[in-house]
Write a structure and sequence with these properties.
This protein is 33% helix and 21% strand. The strands form two sheets. Strands 2-1-3 form a three-stranded antiparallel β-sheet. Strands 4-5 form a two-stranded antiparallel ribbon. The protein is elongated. It is α+β, with helices and mostly antiparallel strands. The protein folds into two domains: 2-71, no CATH class; 74-104. The protein is built from three helices and five strands; from the N terminus they run βαβαβββα.
């Protein structure tokens, strides 16, 4: 199965904070291609920026989207009202889901 999306050609070792304009300029809608799940996984691990939707610069230009991605940079902070045991239980569940996705 191939997924249609837009992928940057540049790999980053750390999350970019100053190169955003250049990334946006490289990820134009006419750069959309189809990738396998394995290619997408490798690209994420290599530090490439991925635009999972196939659209232009505005919401009104949206055409399609086959995958949804969540950008998680750090371990989530425990909400003040949540018990430590509930937080650990939820984090354990989230990590088990994450490990299951690694099989793809």
């Amino acid at each position: 199965m191939k997924i249609k999306l837009i992928m940057d050609k540049v790999n980053y070792q750390i999350k970019p904070s100053t190169d955003i304009g250049a990334i946006i300029n490289r990820m134009k809608i006419d750069n959309v291609k189809e990738y396998s799940i394995e290619e997408i996984k490798k690209s994420v691990l290599d530090g490439k920026t991925i635009r999972p939707s196939y659209c232009g610069g505005q919401e009104t230009d949206w055409i399609s989207q086959q995958v949804f991605m969540i950008d998680i940079d750090n371990k989530p902070v425990k909400p003040k009202k949540m018990s430590e045991s509930d937080y650990e239980r939820r984090m354990t569940r989230a990590m088990s889901c994450s490990k299951a996705l690694e099989r793809f």
